[in-house]
């Protein structure tokens, strides 16, 4: 299994429990992180308190220190989730839309599309994932330039990795079987919102969240993540500069409460070379229909 993400911390906030579950079953798990998250600001104000690493720093010093810490945070997060390998694709964080970092020639936003796809194709040809996970085609709810690019290169890499005419120097062709989009479902948001309202009388989910386009009708696959929510929580906390441990949006419900409210990770099957795309959300396994004889390597053979 190979998951493509934009920044360090995206692997923690999207699908971490599903990856942990498959890793526990013996699936070889690869994380591709396209940028180093260089434009991230300090999101955890408690680190500015006395005795904490960001105490007394200027904004410039703060930014530099965040940049230095993010690689180690990513390694810690990936270790908790159970990624067997972390591959940095090597681009610079493009920042939010229409900001100066978009213009940086090293940014993911400025990268030549075919060249970026080639880097991902090389990883696919080396690691042989049957299942590739990326972001969806409709990201209007959060149109970060790097997240849009993750989608674009993943879809093209899925199509080109098995084509010997593309990137002949990037390894022997290998065709993955299935491509999934991660989804933050409306159903999940509503369940958390209602559980917090019931318990506390308030919720961090306000109207702007519910104005995001509802794509729940596109969900094909629900993975029971209820026994692996510790991976999501632990991985988020590992990104100490990016995630405030007191933030209700992330941690309002305990793992047990979340499991009770909504223990699923939701996915959209976008491409399949091994059977039809389900018309509803009945699928319960990302490897469904992946034929055993197509599996690569020893052990359980799933990857
Ligand atoms: Zn991101």
Helix-strand layout with pairing:
Elements: E1 2-5, H1 10-13, H2 16-24, E2 30-35, H3 59-81, E3 85-91, H4 113-127, E4 131-134, H5 145-160, E5 178-183, H6 186-200, H7 207-210, E6 221-224, H8 229-238, H9 248-251, H10 255-262, E7 264-272
Parallel strand pairs: 1-2, 1-4, 2-3, 4-5
Antiparallel strand pairs: 5-7, 6-7
Helix pairs in contact: 3-8, 4-5, 6-10
Explain this structure to me?
The chain is of the alpha/beta class and 303 residues long. It has helices at residues 10-13, 16-24, 59-81, 113-127, 145-160, 186-200, 207-210, 229-238, 248-251, 255-262; strands at 2-5, 30-35, 85-91, 131-134, 178-183, 221-224, 264-272. A 7-stranded mixed beta sheet has the order 3-2-1-4-5-7-6. Strand 4 (131-134), helix 5 and strand 5 form a beta-alpha-beta unit. Helix 3 runs antiparallel to helix 8 (229-238), helix 4 (113-127) crosses helix 5 (145-160) and helix 6 (186-200) crosses helix 10 (255-262). It is globular. The chain starts with a strand and ends in a 31-residue tail after the last strand. The relative contact order is 0.18. The model has no long low-confidence stretch (mean pLDDT 95). The site of zinc ion has 5 residues, from loops.
